[in-house]
Amino acid sequence: MSIAILKENFSSDSANDNQNKHHWPEAARRFIPQLFKLIRHVKSPVVKKYHISNFNDGTADELGELFNKYNSDKANNKNKPRFHNYHLVYNRILNQLGRENRLNILEIGLGTNDTSIASNMGENGSPGASLKALKEYLPNSNLYGADVDKKILFEEERIKTCFVDQMKEETFEGLKAKFGTIKYDLVIDDGLHNVCANLHTLLFALENLNVNGWVVIEDIGKMKGANWTVIDQIVSQAENLETFLVDGHQTYMYVVHKTN
């Protein structure tokens, strides 16, 4: 890839810059760590952190069992090499939104079982597992999904899916073309788990979220926590957004709530 893409944000505004382009990728590489150091230096407030157990209100078993039934890794599925207790967070959110309401829910990342594709669920994965579980849990809601693997796209009653490549922001326009102009109550990112991909999803979600809607970015590696501290310094400045960094023991979730 040409480093010309770095020119706008990371070139030097000085003489002979074009003869010293090696500075551009170095500036890009150091940008996030430098921002993190700056935040610590000026003692900016950090993202509110919660352990995932704080979301356990004792009513999440039904949703967890449905995730396991459809072979999702969002609950404590012992058949998965890495299983999570994300159902605790989703149960709390969905109870607040109202399980009987006609909600619009979008999940980016359907769980491909093609082992040649990045962020796959292994050959025993079950594409669309989370959407199918949520369909059963939410009797009146419409479920939407998107994935880079066109082979696993499917459609059934109350579920529609389409192609998206999270690393290419322009492909998110395909969601509007396929699904129409929808305001979502919950947007889930369970796709590539790359910060660039995450931010593309977050940007799309914030532009297309209902009031009282939620965005959840799953599977943030613990080593990437510094990135999300920096991102939160921007997102949390909005008067109508409430943010949380949820410690799921193995990984973080970044949660955004649109309050008005």
Keywords:
Rossmann fold, 260 residues, alpha/beta, 8-stranded mixed beta sheet
Task: Give a concise summary.
The chain is of the alpha/beta class and 260 residues long. It has one domain (49-258): Rossmann fold (3-Layer(aba) Sandwich). Helices cover 32% and strands 20% of the residues.
Topology (SSEs and partners):
Layout: H1 7-10, H2 23-41, E1 49-51, H3 61-69, H4 87-97, E2 104-108, H5 129-137, E3 142-147, E4 159-163, H6 173-179, E5 184-189, H7 195-207, E6 209-221, H8 225-235, E7 241-247, E8 251-258
Helix pairs in contact: 2-8, 3-4, 3-5
Please describe what this structure looks like.
- The chain is of the alpha/beta class and 260 residues long.
- The chain has one domain: 3-Layer(aba) Sandwich (Rossmann fold).
- Helix content is 32%, strand content 20%.
- It has eight helices and eight strands.
- An eight-stranded mixed sheet has the order 1-7-8-6-5-2-3-4, sandwiched between helices.
- Strand 2, helix 5 and strand 3 form a beta-alpha-beta unit.
- Helix 2 crosses helix 8 and helix 3 packs across helix 5.
- It is globular.
Top-tier CATH class: Alpha Beta
Q: Provide the spatial order of strands within the biggest beta sheet.
A: 1-7-8-6-5-2-3-4
State the CATH superfamily name.
Vaccinia Virus protein VP39
Terminal-residue CA separation: 41 Å
